[in-house]
Design brief:
Radius of gyration: 14 Å
Number of domains: 1
CATH topology: Glutaredoxin
Strand order of the largest sheet: 2-1-3-4
CATH class: Alpha Beta
Order of helices and strands: EHEHHHEE
Number of strands: 4
Largest sheet: 4 strands, mixed
Structural class: alpha+beta
Shape: globular
Length: 113
């Protein structure tokens, strides 16, 4: 089973999903804006990605620029912010066999298939 944390309004996310479908992956598609992630789930994803929470934040989003840019946060605070504002989570995220990748560029997803 391959899980994709997907935002249908994002062209990169749609492209990544199309690649997964083309590869006939058995997919669990999670529209994380409709079904927000828990702090625990975000932490698990960050661990699988092997990154810091700040690296999962979309820093060009208006809400980040208006409310958070230039401020210091702990890792737990950043996870809480992403939980409260899922639009700030980088996308798409693909997980397979306890490996995760951010599908940017979308072709990068084949690295974990």
């Amino acid at each position: 089973m391959t899980t994709i944390y997907h935002n249908p309004r994002c062209s990169k996310s749609r492209q990544c999903l199309a690649i997964l479908e083309e590869k006939n992956e058995d997919l669990d598609i999670i529209k994380y804006l409709d079904t927000p992630l828990t702090e625990k789930k975000i932490s698990e994803i960050i661990d699988l990605l092997g990154i810091k929470p700040i690296d999962l934040v979309r820093k060009n989003e208006a809400i980040w620029k208006q409310e958070y840019k230039g401020k210091d946060f702990t890792d737990n605070e950043l996870i809480k912010i992403m939980c409260d504002h899922p639009k700030l989570i980088e996308r798409p995220i693909v997980i397979k066999n306890n490996k995760a990748i951010i599908g940017r560029p979308p072709e990068k997803v084949v690295d974990i298939l």
